[in-house]
Amino acid sequence: MSRVFKSPARYVQGRGVTAELGAHAETLGDSALLLADGVVLGLVEDEVTTSLEAQGVEVSTVTFGGECSTAEIDRVAGIAEERGVDIVVAAGGGKALDAAKAVRAERGGAMVSMPTIASTDAPTSALSVVYSEHGEFEEYLFHDDHPDLVLVDTAVVAAAPTRLFRGGVADALATWFEAAATSNSDGDNVVGGKPTRAGTHLAKLCYETLREHAVSAVEAVERDAVTESVEAVTEANTLLSGLGFESGGLAAAHSIHNGLTQLEATHGATHGEKVNVGTISQLVLEGRDDAFVEEIIEFSLDVGLPVTLAEVGLDDPTREQLDVVAEAACADEETIHNEPFAVEPAMVRDAILTADGLGERVRAER
Ligand SMILES: [Zn+2]
């Protein structure tokens, strides 16, 4: 199979770049639909509208319902169709962006991704993660096209809740481990091929950037401050993690995340928080040495990320509950099979249990 690397056409990041939206988007169409939830509309609607209208692009808005579900995608696609728009601009978190990608895939035209939080690697990908209306993971939708433009205003990102920024660090921390597993197993990436050196090494750069800048960046975001470390980590969480996971490949960490979503008790934890439990579990599953697993747990604690099941809503989970998680994580279509060895549910359950114990232990020793 051939090696494939795919990416958005344009990525723009910096303090205050929302004002530049029109200049970067004007070639994409004449009429835009802005999709965002009520809170995000309050943050960006005026500036988005002003910036696009200044370039002669008409703008109308639709309020996002909050879940990237089939029903919500159909509803927004219907509105886009009715208004005859040729650009869908989504602002907000991963779910709003994913819904907009699916709407564009149904109707064609252009798609602009404006993450207002650096919390997942959704903004740059051509993938929508579809959930039920109750929040359980349902399926991945793989689209032909990437966003035409990804625009990240670091002033907006830094002003968002720190917990979400931390979650982005967790989602990005998984990227290198998953891309390395995929590279080692000669597994498939998420864009329909084998990884290129570029895909794998962007994932590695993502990891190195986090290790060098994440603690300082989290402190800055805690104060709504934009520093060079915030720029570095926003790029790691968004661009490097996004390209790294898609073109580098996913493995156990995200499958364990998907498994965890089967238990309702985890729904209060963010995507990244659940992924972090998945990352530490992946390292245990792979038999990494004690010192390295401990180093990653320490780093997680320095950043303020969950390292135990209790922190993602599972106080004293039963073995049966973890079997449900492990079974779901090992479904045929799951990326856990990109690990360079055969993975069985019992191995996954035991890795999760052990990772939880190690997380508790390292925390207690601090
Ligand atoms: Zn993710």
From TrEMBL:
Cofactor: binding details: Binds 1 zinc ion per subunit.
SUPFAM superfamilies: Dehydroquinate synthase-like
Positions with a binding annotation for NAD(+): 37, 94-98, 116-119, 125, 127, 131
Entries under CDD domains matching the protein: GlyDH
Sequence ranges assigned to domain Alcohol dehydrogenase iron-type/glycerol dehydrogenase GldA in this UniProt record: 8-154
Binding-site list for glycerol: 121, 171, 254, 271
Pfam families to which the protein is assigned, alphabetical: Fe-ADH
Source domain of life: Archaea
Keywords: Metal-binding, NAD, Oxidoreductase, Zinc
Cofactor: Zn(2+)
Protein name: Glycerol dehydrogenase
Organism for this UniProt entry: Salinigranum rubrum
